[in-house]
Amino acid sequence: MHIVGIIAEYNPFHNGHLHQIVSTRKQTHCDYIVVAMSGNFTQRGEAAIVDKFVRTQMALKAGVDLVLELPVPFATASAERFAQGAVSLFHQTGIVETLSFGSECGDTTLLELIAKRLETPSPTFNASLKKHLKESYSFPRAREQALLEDLKTLELDSEIYTSLLELIRSPNNILGIEYIRAIEHFSTTIQPFTIKRLTAGYHDPLLYPQIASATAIRTHLSNGYSSELVACMPSTTYELLDNTSYHQPDMDILTPFLHHKFMFSNKKDLYSLWDIPNDLINTFLNNYTSFEYLSELVKACTSKTYTSATVRRALLRLLLDIQDEALKQFEAISWIPYIRVLGCKKESAAILKHLNYSANRPIITNLSRVYADLDPLSKQLIDYELNATKLYHYLTKQPKLYNQDFTQGFLML
Is the model's pTM score more than 0.90? Predict the structure, then answer.
């Protein structure tokens, strides 16, 4: 039995995702495809366009066999932690043999070359990274510059160097590199496999015939549906989006929660949050009273050092009170204390039996049945998820769904 994993947000599911699934099946001859999917918030620190159970339906109806939840701290983390969380999740299943991901380059060999340089950095790389961080570059930008300087020391063929230069400036290539790094980090036997992306780049704002980025689709959805937009996604995605369009979340209504947090928290408590630099906390404290909306605060705090995604992720961690000490405990067990199933295709039910037999972590299919018996570490991670769901449905103005994690069992379609 050959099982392939895909890491995704499906925000929303579109034809590019369908291309990846179809191509993966065709090229790997796999029996099943398992997806590790972000929950209600995404890696950019934003609320997903529709909730995780709707997006699970999108995936299952488009051909995915099994959807697992990537817990919110990792789903909303930097590319490195995002990749580590997802790869560890697949590793703990004991059934995923191959990791399929999209990339602009479509060349695993080139991605592996960069991944190895990052996983075991040279003195040249470390010195350059330190230098550029001191110059107040954002970490992604500083790392890119350090990589360029490191690669120059290898005396590569000019054509290969040019290819690597283009490679490290693409968001999807960067994620692919981080997936390969995570595979190395956990010494897992999972094999990387890449599918070349079609036309639209990761953040491309334009709608192309039939293929568009999720960014473009979200942008155009805010202006209503069009024939061009509908052509970019499977009909099942369009139908699900159409049924939930009036509940799309608005992050700006979280502003009062942020003000309350800043007003009644001391610096020591704020400094204890996970992966938020103290100087960014200070920037928030110095600026929050000047802005009425969260989006304005994000814009004001975005800088050469901190990207808008970094700022949004930090504000979300602050709202969810994700503690550094707790994440150190998760890191000590390779991040993942349980495996939560969001959905499975009826005809693929055999994969659940295989998962139950092979997994290295407890399997959760119905949270309400097992919550009281969870170990403390699993309960702590689940509690972050519960709070994220409540926060998300506050944004969608659906208070009846605050406890959706308890009332909604895993989907079997």
Answer: yes
